[in-house]
Write a structure and sequence with these properties.
Strand content: 15-25%
CATH architecture of the largest domain: Alpha-Beta Complex
CATH topology of the largest domain: 2-enoyl-CoA Hydratase, Chain A, domain 1
Strand order of the largest sheet: 8-5-3-2-1-11
Protein name: Membrane-bound serine protease (ClpP class)
Domain NfeD-like C-terminal: 388-437
Biased composition (Low complexity): 138-147
Shape: elongated
Distance between the termini: 107 Å
CATH class of the largest domain: Alpha Beta
Largest sheet: 6 strands, parallel
Radius of gyration: 36 Å
Structural class: alpha/beta
GO molecular function, one term: peptidase activity
Number of strands: 16
Number of domains: 3
GO biological process, one term: proteolysis
Number of helices: 16
CATH superfamily of the largest domain: 2-enoyl-CoA Hydratase, Chain A, domain 1
Length: 465
């Protein structure tokens, strides 16, 4: 038994010598969004269940969505495992939402050549920069004007963000004055400047150097003091799993918009030609995935309504004689809705204008292409004239329609006809068939628009119109 225990202990020399708990390294890269928030939540839960002594958020982000940022901050504040935010590698940044996350962490570190800051909340909706420029011009001219509703909303967001980051700075004992300036004035700092102004706790070249630097430090976690022993601790790198990658792709606004378009057109095609099955199934799946992604993003519902209105108008153009009015209106509504769909200017969460233009041109081409094909088909020579209809039997579907040779025709007769009556075709006037009940003797078909029921019969003659 002792020999077996000795053999089991051999693969873990670091643990046997130091008894140190592992350190989990979690990458946080790109724009902060719903996928990032869920990934951090799962990583923190995994580190806690594994008994980790420290979580390193290796960060490089231009910012992100406010709800996702606050979710990560709350996860850090309630985590039973200390968290250090490490801006890495060289050239990385912790801008906007990344600055809030760094201030919320128990320890903050940076790599030389990195920066943080510019944490001002971006505008929401349309017209933000124009209002800011107008306010600046009015201030320069000495004009005084009452604030509009948009200005009040922007000031509320600015004050809320400033108070939020000041509270985080006071909680962690960091530079609260500079934190507020980062929000109000969008200032930034390099790694050395951040260390000198007590914004971060240390500067390290890589993760091993970081773990040696924090070894022996005492942090307060959940009201208790905890001393870190990280110099020889094993490192566990948490890589993004397939769920994170799938959610990251789905919550990309461009992908969500494309999925919605595929879903809507797939359902339209299925409803117009029932029985194809594949377009309906694929369309339903894409539409549900697109709606799932949009409910996690800051969606402007006016833009979503304009998007649906535009698609509806362009589809209706193919069925209604609007002479292009519905199509042009649908194009304008679709383009405006696609531009307004995502209600934020956060980097990485807007719909590119080139994609909006491409989808608009594609939808317009499809709509007007269907209309042109229908118009061209309408102008083609009549081919019904060559079919043998006179003399064939059918059954009334209602008082005005009958099924003849498996086709639905509008009919007229000298006597009233009811649903289910058996009728015989005695002539045709354009797209309307003249019929008579089957129990009456067969009438001689008109000479100009008919052919004999049996052209091989010797006692009947055939005429060609």
């Amino acid at each position: 038994m002792l020999a077996a225990l000795a053999l089991l202990a051999r693969p873990f020399p670091a643990l046997a010598q130091s008894g140190a708990a592992p350190v989990y390294v979690v990458p946080v890269e790109g724009a902060i969004g719903p996928a990032s928030a869920r990934f951090v939540q799962r990583a923190v839960a995994r580190a806690q269940s594994a008994g980790a002594q420290l979580i390193v958020l290796k960060m490089d982000t231009p910012g992100g969505l406010d709800p996702s940022m606050r979710t990560i901050v709350q996860q850090i504040l309630t985590s039973p495992v200390p968290v250090v935010t490490y801006v890495h590698p060289g050239g990385a940044r912790a801008a906007s939402a990344g600055t809030f996350i760094l201030y919320a962490s128990h320890l903050a570190a940076m790599t030389p050549g990195t920066n943080l800051g510019a944490a001002s909340p971006v505008r929401i909706g349309l017209g933000g920069p124009e209002r800011s420029e107008k306010r600046g011009a009015a201030s320069d001219a000495g004009a005084s004007a009452p604030p509009v509703q948009g200005d009040v909303l922007e000031r509320k967001q600015l004050h809320d963000a400033a108070a939020y980051i000041r509270g985080l700075a006071q909680l962690r004992g960091r530079n609260a004055e500079w934190a507020e300036r980062a929000v109000r004035e969008a200032v930034s700092l390099s790694a050395e400047e951040a260390l000198a102004q007590r914004v971060v706790d240390l500067v390290a070249n890589d993760v091993p150097a970081l773990l040696r630097a924090v070894d022996g430090r005492t942090v307060t976690v959940a009201g208790a003091q905890r001393t870190l022993r990280t110099a020889t601790a094993p490192v566990v790198n948490v890589e993004p799993d397939w769920r994170y990658q799938l959610l990251a792709v789905l919550t990309e606004p461009s992908v969500a918009l494309i999925l919605m378009m595929i879903g809507i057109y797939g359902l339209i095609f299925e409803f117009s030609t029932p029985g194809m099955v594949l377009p309906g199934v694929a369309g339903a799946i894409c539409l549900l995935l697109g709606l799932f992604a949009l409910q996690m993003l800051p969606v402007n519902y006016a833009g979503l309504a304009l998007l649906a209105l535009g698609i509806g108008c362009m589809v209706a153009e193919a069925y209604l004689p609007s002479f292009g009015v519905l199509g042009l209106g649908g194009i304008v509504a679709f383009a405006l809705g696609a531009v307004m769909l995502i209600d934020t200017d956060v980097p990485g969460y807007g719909v590119p204008l080139w994609l909006v233009a491409t989808l608009t041109v594609g939808a317009a081409a499809l709509s007007f292409g269907i209309s042109a094909a229908a118009l061209q088909a309408r102008r083609r020579p009549d081919v019904i004239r060559q079919t043998r209809l006179v003399g064939n039997s059918g059954r009334m579907l209602d008082a005005q329609w009958a099924e003849v040779q498996g086709e639905r025709w509008r009919v007229s007769g000298a006597t009233p006809l009811r649903e289910g009556d058996a009728v015989r075709v005695i002539g045709r006037e354009g797209l309307v068939l003249r019929v008579e009940p089957m129990d009456e003797p067969a009438a001689e078909p008109p000479h100009a628009d008919s052919t004999p029921a049996d052209p091989a019969s010797p006692d009947r003659t055939s005429t060609t119109p």
